[in-house]
Amino acid sequence: MTVNVISRGMLNVTEIYLLRHGETEWNASGRFQGKLDSPLTSHGIEQAKTSGRRLSQLGIDYDTLVASPLGRTRQTAAIVAGCGRFPEIRYDQRLAEVSTGSWDGLTHIDIDAQWPGRLDQSTAFDWFFRSPDGESYEAAFERVTEWLRDLQGVVIAVSHGLVGRIIRGAYLDLPRDEALGLPVPQDAIWRLANGQIDAVR
Q1: N or C terminus of the chain with fewer C-beta within 10 Å?
Q2: Is 21 part of the annotated catalytic residue set?
Q3: Which pTM value belongs to this model?
């Protein structure tokens, strides 16, 4: 995907290599994690290894390896770091997944049973923000935009599905619905550079 960059003058960073954590047990069972956690599956571990090897093979002198402090991103970042010569892992709360509050750890079926009608007419992407006590899109957008503005150099960032969409949407200045509809495969690395986002092959 290639789209014009936002005109915020926000970035001192040269490149960001953004990836999502590997598949977790709750991903596999359709349970939204938010600020809660579950470990990587064997498939998720292999996804993280593949990403680490791919990043190492690019032959880039990375300045920073930063991850969300949640367990699944810590586990993914540690696996990535073991695949080559990378900077020491740092953690940043601004990369943590969006919380749906009391919906964290639940499935759509659970939510429908406990909050009847709350998900009616929601889309595949905006339902996250219908929780009665979760984080708002605006709050998540603000923290990831602040994170983007603070970056320098060439950065590897290990984050999550929903917040990863918001990071890419903020970088490209996309409307909310377009940002939330971005793909988030767990075996992809996205290169954010020069006002464009491209998948690393």
Answers
A1: C
A2: yes
A3: 0.91
160 is catalytic: no
- In this structure, the number of other CB atoms found within 10 A of the CB of residue 69 comes to 14
Catalytic residue from among 21, 23, 135, 160: 21
pLDDT tens digits along 123-158: 877 888 999 999 999 999 999 999 999 999 999 999
Cβ contacts of 159 within 8 Å, gap of 6 or more: 18, 19, 20, 21, 67, 68, 73, 95, 97, 167
Which CA distances in Å does 75 have to 122, 151, 167, 187, 198? 32, 23, 21, 15, 25
- Domains of the chain with bracketed CATH: 12-199 (3.40.50.1240)
Query: Catalytic residue among 15, 23, 43, 97, which?
Result: 97
